[in-house]
Amino acid sequence: QGRLAESGGGLAQPGGSLTLSCEASGFTFSRYRMSWARQAPGENREWVARILSDGTQPYYANSVKGRFTISRDNAVNTLYLQMTNLKPEDTALYYCAVWNGTYPNYEYHYWGQGTQVTVSS
After folding, report:
1. Within 10 A of 91 (CB to CB), how many other CB atoms are there?
2. Given pLDDT bands bounded at 50, 70 and 90, which one contains residue 1?
């Protein structure tokens, strides 16, 4: 149905910063709410942040609130996640996803392979 390509991951020291990008194609990006999630080895996937189709009303998991910023540029079909003050527990494979549905029955469509973020000294 669509394609998502995450990029921008890498190695960062605790307290450092990284910005992830998600390039969307194969669907009308500007019509959809979007989300970021992450998954560490041996752990369940964790929702991180979401944003409305017009770029308003960002919302965050408590674990990243105040440190991460979700944004989007509909002109270039790209979703972003700016991460600051990184912590070792942020280490995970990060995925972007289309966010559908209504509370409490949200739906997340993961169409990419993710990008790895590793935080260590």
Report:
1. 17
2. confident
